[in-house]
Amino acid sequence: MLAKKLVFWGVAFSAVLLIFSWEGFAQAQDISPAMQQEFSDAKVALEAAQKAQAEKYAPEPIKQARDLLVTADNARAFKDAVKFAQASRLARAYAELAKATAELKSEEEKLAATQEELHKAKGEIERLKKPR
Questions:
Q1: DSSP code per residue over 83-115
Q2: Alpha-carbon gap, residue 102 to 97, rounded angstroms
């Protein structure tokens, strides 16, 4: 009987220590203003990607950016500073990738259209050069 009580109190004491140590860990992991700024920067980068038509040209990276912003927001709600910071940085990186990809593909489309017009103009010049 005494052994059971000692085991019970040992487990209870260990649980209390675990709770206090976890609480101290959670308090030590506050989300800093720099982390908040990274999250804000990620949102701004996502908006810039949307303006660059990333939905059309880079759907996967923009989806990743959105998903990671949701993950960061959830981590903030649970006060998980490490996950919040990581998801915010990744969201920003994916948003910037989406924007760059969208801009590149948009420019490629413009180049292709210009080359097509050039080809047509050359054809018209050659047609006009031929004697009738």
A1: HHHHHHHHHHHHHHHHHHHHHHHHHHHHHHHHH
A2: 8
pLDDT score, position 68:
98
Give, in degrees to the nearest 5, the angle at Cα 54 between 114 and 86: 140
Q: Which residue has the higher pLDDT, 1 or 44?
A: 44
Write down the residue that tokens 């080809």 correspond to. Answer: 119
Q: Using CA atoms, how far apart are residues 29 and 37, in angstroms rounded to an integer?
A: 16
Which amino acid, one-letter code, is at 8? F
Residue showing tokens 């030590």: 28
Give the global pTM: 0.71
How far apart are alpha carbons 122 and 128 in whole angstroms? 10
Mean pLDDT over 102-108 rounds to 95
